[in-house]
Amino acid sequence: MKKNLARRALGHGATYLVLLAAALLTLAPFTVSVLTSLTSPRQLAQQGPLHLPAPPTLESFSTLLSSVDGFVTPVAVTVQMVAVILVGQIVFSVLAAYAFAHLRFPGRDLLFWVFVATLMVPQVVVVVPLYLMLSEAGLRNTFWALVLPFVLGSPYAIFLLRENFRQMPSELMDAMRIDGAGTLRLLWNLVVPLNRPIIVTLVLITVVTHWNSFMWPMVITSGPEWRTITVATSALQSQYSSNWTLVMAGTTLAMLPLMLLMIVFQKQITRSVGGTGLR
């Protein structure tokens, strides 16, 4: 009995050590980025990036935000881009998922699985056709070029919402229809409230995905006018390769909103993942 307890305790201890090592490896780059961004260039040159800033300074952030090619415009462009894509993806994904789950029309299941199959196609494969289409339409290096390929819904979101919508009690929906509710009222008053956790999770996934989007904004835009925050961060590495405090300040600014978002909504994410697993 004691041997079994000792083995179990040893196994648990080894598991926690592995998880701790993985957590340290994952968090180390972010920690170095934040510490370096709060360090003065002189201290960084003397002590390196692994020392605590003494004292911490916001000089790099001030320089970055006040410079002509700073982060004010890229942040504004990225926020607008993510907001438009988010609203479009949630609205159209909810409508499409409801249609695939509860409406009957010819070829419904075939169309759904063909649409979901596009998840298997790497994004790099469709970059060139999308670029040619939008260039021919005269939309290259415009705001609409950033959002149009993504605003009409996401295969992943539609798949996830459809699976959740199919688990809803049909009695509730039939009762609302008997009371005279139309499709839009049914969606707004019943379907969306009952699936709020998974919708919140999709909101977070959409924000994180398109805030971190790099390839498409880099390809379809040129110059500082419609530069997103990821492209601006990449440009810092070539402009200020010797000033790592400035580069790390840009990196920290790019990842800070996402970290705050995940901290605030972590309970909703856990709840939605748990509910999806039970289904």
UniProtKB/TrEMBL annotation:
Residues 75-265 form the ABC transmembrane type-1 domain. It is a multi-pass membrane protein. Keywords: Cell membrane, Membrane, Transmembrane, Transmembrane helix, Transport. The chain crosses the membrane at residues 71-98, 110-131, 143-165, 186-208, 244-265. Its main location: membrane. Belongs to the binding-protein-dependent transport system permease family. The keyword Transmembrane helix applies. InterPro entries: MetI-like, MetI-like_sf. Gene3D superfamilies: MetI-like (1.10.3720.10). This is Carbohydrate ABC transporter permease. It is found in: Cell membrane.
